[in-house]
Design brief:
CATH architecture: Sandwich
Number of domains: 1
Oligomer: single chain
Shape: globular
Number of strands: 14
Order of helices and strands: HHHEHEHHEEHHEEEEEEHEEEEH
Radius of gyration: 21 Å
CATH class: Mainly Beta
Length: 372
Amino acid sequence: MVASERDEVNKKMEEEAFDRKREIKAFDDTKAGVKGLVDSGITTVPRIFIGPPETSKASNNSTSQQYKFPIIDLRGIDEDQAKRKEMVEKVRDASGTWGFFQVINHGIPDDVLEEMLKGVRGFHEQETEVRKQWYTRENARRVFYHSNFDLYSAPVTNWRDTLSCLMAPNPPTPHDLPSVCSEIFIKYSKEVTKLGHSLLELFSEALGLEPNHLKDMDCAEGLTILGHYYPACPQPELTLGASKHEDNDFLTILLQDQIGGLQVLYQNQWVDVPPTPGALVVNIGDFLQLVSNDKFVSAQHRALANRVGPRVSAASFFTTNLVASSKLYGPIKELLSEDDPPKYRETTIKDYTTYFNAKGLDGISALLHYRL
């Protein structure tokens, strides 16, 4: 047998020996997430986390040096009309090109930001048996913890665990949340909601609409906060913290720590989103691209795995109440014309989210499914 034939036989035997569904089920049954794997002392990345070579960190080096990531200073947002007009122009430019920007002087105190990151980390670093009490795949629950919402549907498993908390429209009580982080989650959600409303006003004005237009569409009726935990990875070149994807909401406000790893796809290049002390990352979600009729873009982004860790972040997703709302969303009529007809069919948030979740993070935009 020649070497090439032997390699093919070995490869086939290896593939037959690897039962992905069985491995995923075994991982899920531990209810300990990626954190549990790291705690067990593993020195190699399990097969379910290894993606194809083109998705690896090594084959997609960032070209951040070529680009200046947008930073918008919100100081004086409600006091100086000239400054506000300048902010609106910057928001319009960043939202229509990058789909991402950072905000500074946003009004949320630094100590609240620090306490929020500590709260997320505190949850994930509890004793495994305590953490397991919150583990479930029932997405209908208001508060739950798991690893990879698309564990059974995605082509590859991501190196991260998540605590998911539905904070609006019906805020949870402290008893509904894990005790280790309940107080700060409630406090932070109030602060980030105010910022979200201010940003929606800027987005509305950037689209040439009245300031309250997007808020009146209930774009910020619901708020879900995801506390992500990316443990240190022994082989970060083989996997990702979060695969390439877009967010299925109107608006995301991300609080990240100083480790870094978030990248956005800009002009077909991966660009690092630099950790900036006191700053928050803002990105356009699919629904805002849909209702703006492509005037704003929901950019693809990903999170790298890292030998240093854990990396901790808190992502605030603004959308409508997924359970109760049967409201149809389509391109805003005031933005349409004979030369710019609607590019998407109408859909409910619930139907869109169901499709998004079933598809998983496969690198393909869910918006394509709704494009006319």
